Amino acid sequence: MRPTLLIRGLLCGLPIFAMAALAEGGTFSLRLRSQVETAPGTARYHTVTTPAEWDASKTAVILCDMWDDHYCRSAAKRVAEMAPRMNEVVKKARAAGALIIHCPSGCMDHYANTPQRRLAQSASKIETTIPLENWCHLDESREPAMPVGVEQPCDDAGELRERIRFYNHQIETLEIAGGDAVTDSAEAYYLMKQRGIERVLVMGVHTNMCVLGRPFGIRQLVRQGMAVALVRDMTDAMYNPTEEPFVNHFTGNDLVVAHIERHWCPTVTSGEILGDGVVYRFPDDTRPHLVIVAAEDEYKTEETLPPFALAELGRAFKISTVYDDEKDRNTLPAADLVREADLLLLSVRRRNLPKEQLDLFRAHLAAGKPLVGIRTASHAFHQRDEAPPAGFDEWRDFDATVLGGHYTGHHGNKIATFAQVVTGAAAHPILAGVPGGELATHGSLYQNTPLREGVEVLMTGRAEGIAQPEPVAWTHVSSGGGRVFYTSLGHPRDFEIPAFRALLRNALYWACDLSPLVEPEP
Fold it and tell me: What's the sign of the alpha-carbon dihedral 155, 287, 255, 292?
């Protein structure tokens, strides 16, 4: 690469960096993450990644509304927090030969007569088959309603600030260089077409508003046939947890990113552009990552667990879900998410996975990470008496060595079942909110006696007319030292029982050594 001279001056009160020599071209090695419906009409999605090489010289980077301030003070704080990392991404992209377009909407007077502003204005208008729009609203032809409410989107504590203008220009942390452009209109599209740009990386705020809707935003660019990717760790939503769906602010942002991955374009991370592998997290985002693995055909946990997790855990956990393949039950298309899990919630029945996928579960437990299993997790990774198909693996002693169980079958499906807290166990944090009396439950009673040494039984169950009780909820410790909880409950109708929901919710908090949040109902 030729030496690059940086000349720093002051223009309109904002530091400007001019590059006296252009960097040589480069390539972005990206992993484009999308969400693909498991089967038409299911509203369940596999998270899949596809490797891609993008020619930097044919790529633009758009910085959306990274203002110097905002009426929502918490939103302004988060912009300031991620701006240094974003600036490093921009510098790397610029050096590789990408076109950088700064888009601080409503601030064009601040940049009047600057070379960067004149560059954007110099692009000739072109006719488009689909008309360009000043704001691209939700497109009901390709996307459902947004997953978060925005009636009072600011998440500041106390009274919401009046929505008045606090900003004047782009945040100064983001350097503007010679060869960059500044605009807040469709000039961005004209300039990209003039330069032969084919691909666009979008960063900035706010994910559910301007990032999608602005004239330089995702909806507009995708409609015009551009290949677009959102840099998902360099964005933030305008979402207030006191609004639907009543989850953590960062969980709300995750939901918007998932919406984009499903209906508009793939996403990438800043670490893929910088090459350091880092995924940026805001300092206040301390959520453990819960990965739900739902791969069974009997108890519909692919339908019950995701809404349960969002409602009961969305205020404290980052949540992802892995499903089996509709055409190949022994494959998990999104298995790589297991690598990212701080906690696994397992609902799998008799699946023989490829060794590389099953090894992800082994590695999770060997690292001392926690696991919660329900119902068929006791016979998750093997067939009854059959060896795995060629090319697939099994974990026959998973029940005994990980869960501490001893599943040998179950009593009849039509026999009434009941569960009760074990004498002396009521003080365990997993049992908070679980009444001491006997509860009517649903589904057959699993036969698990005798359990492995070291198991702590929390609840037992009985089947009507059968004398032998069975353990139905207990804790264990994996060989890697991680906390393990298992319950043989988990029939679809069990999720209608408040005590069961409390049991499972508490177990997930306990597994991560957290205290469940106690908050007033919104």
Answer: negative
Examine residue 516 and state whether it is found in any structural domain, yes or no.
no
351 shares its domain with 425: yes
Domain extent at residue 188: 57-274
504 lies in the same domain as 369 = yes
d(C-alpha 438, C-alpha 164), whole Å: 57
Per-residue exposure over 212-238, b if at least 16 CB sit within 10 Å of its own CB, e if not: bbbbbbbbbbbbbebbbbbbbbbbbbb
Q: How far apart are CA 148 and CA 371, in angstroms?
A: 29
| Residue 280 forms part of a structural domain | no
Residues 296-345 have pLDDT tens digits of 999 999 999 999 999 999 999 999 999 999 999 999 999 999 999 999 99
Determine, yes or no, domain membership for 103: yes
How many CB atoms neighbour CB 203 within 10 A? Answer: 25
The whole-number average pLDDT for the span 85-98 is 98
Token pair for residue 87?
């600036």
Report the CATH number at residue 163: 3.40.50.850
Are 235 and 86 in the same domain? yes
DSSP one-letter code for 385: S
Q: What's the rounded Cα separation, in Å, for the pair 458 and 128?
A: 66
Provide the token pair at 491: 């029939």
Q: Which residues are CB-contacts of 334 (< 8 A; sequence separation ≥ 6)?
A: 46, 47, 48, 320, 321, 322, 323
Regarding beta strands 456-463 and 470-477, do their DSSP bridges make them parallel or antiparallel, or are they unpaired? antiparallel
Q: Which of 425-429, 482-486, 517-521 has the lowest mean pLDDT?
A: 517-521
The DSSP call for residue 399 is I
Residue 47: strand pairing partners: 35
For residues 243 and 356, membership in a common domain is answered with no
Q: Around 233, how many Cα atoms within 13 Å sit in the side-chain half-sphere?
A: 20
User: Beta partners for 101?
Assistant: 62, 181
pLDDT (average), residues 198-227: 98
Which of 243, 274, 305 is the C-terminal boundary of a domain?
A: 274
pLDDT on residue 15: 37
- Residue 36 resides in a domain: no
Kindly state the tokens that stand for 236.
Answer: 């933030």
Shared domain for 220 and 332, answered yes or no, is no
pLDDT at 467: 85
Same domain, 330 and 181: no
160 band by pLDDT with thresholds 50, 70 and 90: low
Dist CA 510 CA 101 (whole Å): 47
Buried b / exposed e along 491-519 (16+ C-beta atoms within 10 A): beebbebebbbbbbbbbbbbbbeeebeee
If one counts the domains in the chain, the total is 2
Q: Tell me: do 242 and 99 sit in the same domain.
A: yes
Please name the amino acid found at residue 240. N
CATH number for position 335: 3.40.50.880
